[in-house]
From TrEMBL:
The keyword ATP-binding does not apply. InterPro entries: FAD-bd, FAD/NAD-bd_sf, PheA/TfdB_FAD_monoxygenase. Keywords: Oxidoreductase. This is NAD(P)/FAD-dependent oxidoreductase. Residues 8-171, 254-364 form the FAD-binding domain. The lineage of its organism: Bacteria, Bacillati, Actinomycetota, Actinomycetes, Micrococcales. It comes from the Bacteria. Signal peptide: none annotated. Gene3D superfamilies: 3.30.70.2450, FAD/NAD(P)-binding domain. The keyword NAD does not apply.
Amino acid sequence: MTARVDHEAIVVGAGPSGRFLASELARQGIDVLLVERRSAPAEAGVKPPPGGRAIGLHPPALAALEPSGATELLLALAARVERGLAYDGPRRLAVLDFARPGRRFPFAVSVPQSATEHAVSLDAPEPSFDAEVRSVAPYPDRVVLEIVRNEQEQELTARAVVLATGAPGRVLALPYARLATREYPDRFLMSDSAEAFDRRGDDRTAVIALDPRGVLESFPLAGGGRRFVAGFGAGPDDVGGAGLEDSGNGRPGHADRASERLRRAVAERSGDAASVPAFEAVSAFRIRRALLDRMRLDAGGRLFAIGDAAHEISPIGGQGMNLGLLDAAGLAPILAARLRLDADQDRELVRWERQRLASARTAARIAGLNTALGRPRGRLEHTALRASIGTTMRTPLSRTAAKAYTMGFDRAR
């Protein structure tokens, strides 16, 4: 007797990677349900909560999104980042040119995450919101999910389930995989400003200031303005009264002090106090690394984890969302062939998993190096670092740094 199956595929999590995967499966004729534990978005015109939102898309992700038409939509909105500049005070240490010969997209882009989610989900089913998945259980012929929706418990089944939940839903994968984590001591403040600019770079340039007090990063925003991220090194959760918490949001009542702390850091580290705005919405965050040892969570190849559910990478460098989109781009055709044709895709799934885990580990190492370079340090140590970077960036290694910054070492095919 054949067991009941409600859907061919269920994707858990309606973030960018989950929406993109659901869209790609639907485009290939797969019956897919997209479930999301959060409530439906607020009505149009309601300002979303500030901070913590991914804005960067790198060349491998742009290439992966192109067949769906998403890249064309995003490029019409995005700010193109064609180079990176590294400074120590007024002294320029390095120029990173992102235009490499043969590259389809010789730039990264800055675009709001909401625009990315819209672009990648044009063919996706409407998410089923307020649906919290309590457990997943793979069997040889199906996966069973226990879901609470509208305060009602129910059971759903599918031939395949993909966890694209982000970090909060990683617990669903833990019965089937080992997790390695690392908490970094570093603390950061971040804010966007529509009026801000950085005199050291134009609207196509990312700027990194290596300062003895900590790193300052500055990125152009779509539509004008810039995002600033300032590092403050290790310390208590309260950086300058900012109320740093794991959630990435400052505690109520600390907004003014967080804004002033960030404004002062930007003024001191950029050397341009006159043009620094008063930041209205400041996010505080810490960083961490979490890597599952597998993304194919069962021997039968019916339960998977992608994106932050499988590999959470430090946001310094902005590669987390890109990794999830590339996970989805690689998995979608393999899973669709398996479901639509009932084809044996074991070899392809093994190759996909190896490539994506290797890419996540590479991204984690690069993010760890970026974080270490941006920490506060004494004057003598900082002088030595400055000399080392200045010398290194005058060699062909500068091309390697530009490649790393734009995810050129990702193994996506």
